[in-house]
Amino acid sequence: MPALNTSPLIPRGDLFGNPTRAAGKISPDGQWLSWLAPKDGVLNIWIAPADNPDQAKAMTDATDRPIRQYFWSPDSQSLLYIQDKGGDENFLLYGVNIASGEETTLTPFENTRVDIVGGSESIRDKILVGLNNRDPEFHDVHLLDLNSGELTLVIENNSYAGFMADDTLTVRMALRQNEAGGTDYFRVVDNKVEEEPFTSTEMEDALTTSPAGYTRDGSILYWLDSRDRNTAALFAEDVASGERTLIAENDRADIGGTIRDRETGEVQAYSVNYLKTEWTALDADIGASLDWLGTQLEGEYGISSRTDDDQTWIVWNDPLTAPTATYIYDRQAQTLTPFYVTRPELEGAPLQPMYPVEIASRDGLTLPSYLTLPAGVAMDGNGSPSASSPMVLLVHGGPWARDDYGFNSIHQMLANRGYAVLSVNFRGSTGFGKDFLNAANKQWGLAMHDDLIDATNWAITQGITGKDQVAIMGGSYGGYATLAGLAFTPETFACGVDIVGPSNLETLLDTIPPYWAPLVKIFHERMGDPNTEEGLALLKAASPLYKADQITKPLLIAQGANDPRVKQAESDQIVGAMKDAGIPVTYVLYPDEGHGFAKPTNNIAFFAIAENFLAECLGARAEPLGDVLLPSSAEILEGAEHVAGLANALAE
């Protein structure tokens, strides 16, 4: 591939290291800009006056795990963020006072996971939070004073999966899974949950129907609703009368995000994401702003933050073949002021375009997918590439999630190394209606896997790749799909990379986090019920562990020791089975990580191992390992000899 030889190698650190800046926001009062940026190598929250962005200062002092999620208090007096320990997903809530710089642990409990139940535009110094410190299965609702830290119990919860409140921070609704695997919705009056639900869903609608919030005065309840239809539409329900009005619908995809009026809470615009995100405005002023932004920005864009007066927006722009940039948008003046470029080191790098494609499954479904080709390989008007390349089938997690159009660090690294990369929204992926979602029920390792095989065969037929040139790779469900691919269809893939993937569906369901217990029925209905003979047989048949002896191709497994969802035992089991069968496997453990890898040093180390593993298998190029393992916590428990340079790197 001559063009690849002249294309510069993009350093791993430029793709997987800390961003220069990320998650830019503006305080509700418009006085402050905020963002995430490294401080001594660890992502922390920074702020600067909106009228003097150069006067930046760090407001937090995380020294181990990066801060990845934060938000402003409604009164603009403090910054709030969540953080866990070592990837255990017991997220606590922390607050930093802007004036004093003092940091407070707002939920100071052990083995506790906080949920945000509700915020308010009118009560600006308080929010509602859910805490499972009393019972790990259920979140009790508390009123939290953001400035004093005082927690007041509102509802003790012994059976509900979640709650919804209005703008007065009054809890209005509780939800609970029903016996069918659907959801029952209950009115809450004076913090008491009514005995009978006011509405319900069947299991088939449970993942495509949900309440989407109240208007500011509490008179309208919005729903994203797939009942009596396929795709989820946006409805407005009059709370007093129960009358429902259809606001928006789309035949190909569920209604996604909305933009709400800052004063009234009414929907002003909505998005639909089939292959790409498209916004439709219901409000003329919002429509004019979105249209103007569309004339100024190439590729995808969106709003990440708005001031109370709605005159200033923080807007991100993803051009795909250049690094993502963020701007300060003054709506009245119609100006876009550069805020930052997330990864300026990628400016001028040979980033590759992403092609949205539709692939037909063997039983007639359409699989919305995304293809990235290596440097020097182009797609012609008929959808055929100018040359064949080795390919990585990159499978998303969930499985009740989806792949999207946009910049993807893994796609870019692999394409830069010489691979075509294909991400497939297989059946069970969300956003494409309930029929597509429910076509995956009890189809782990069956029709869900067939979709991935069909996509692989499509790529071969299109000349994108060759029959023996495809690797499979993914995290969580994507890791499971990797194991299933090598165990169930051992001739299809040349090798596989499994990141925190379950190998035994029975033990996976037996060890779910306690706070998932109120939703366990949906796992049983969609995967198989281990409490029935038929369900248990289904789970065992779909578990790669029991066919580990049929794996014949190279396999790399990576696992976080503190993963609460896919326990380390899931990787340990299949590695042990492969060793017993005398089958080579490379196993990397991160003792300070959970379900995926948060620390950049660990991410960089993992992708260093992965790209050299893939190069050994498929023959594309790789950046040498060098001393990448030294700053990481990676422990190579098995098979260092199967990755080029790994044994030497360990010896240094």
Query: CATH fold name of the domain at 354-504 and 543-651, please?
Result: Rossmann fold
Annotation field: number of helices: 13
First-residue to last-residue Cα separation: 34 Å
Q: Low-confidence stretches at least 5 residues in length (pLDDT < 50)?
A: none
Estimate what percentage of residues fall within beta strands: 25-35%
Which structural class do you get from the secondary structure elements? Answer: alpha+beta
- Gyration radius (Cα, Å) is 25 Å
Annotated CATH architecture of the domain at 354-504 and 543-651 = 3-Layer(aba) Sandwich
Mean pLDDT: 96
Sum up the overall morphology in one term. globular
The CATH homology group name of the domain at 354-504 and 543-651: Alpha/Beta hydrolase fold, catalytic domain
Kindly state the number of beta strands: 37
CATH C-level category of the domain at 354-504 and 543-651: Alpha Beta
The main β sheet shows up as: 9 strands, mixed
How much helicity do the residues have? 10-25%
Strands across the major sheet, in which order?
Answer: 29-30-32-31-33-34-35-36-37
Enzyme class: hydrolase
Protein name: S9 family peptidase
GO biological process, one term: proteolysis
InterPro entries: 6-blade_b-propeller_TolB-like, AB_hydrolase_fold, Peptidase_S9_cat
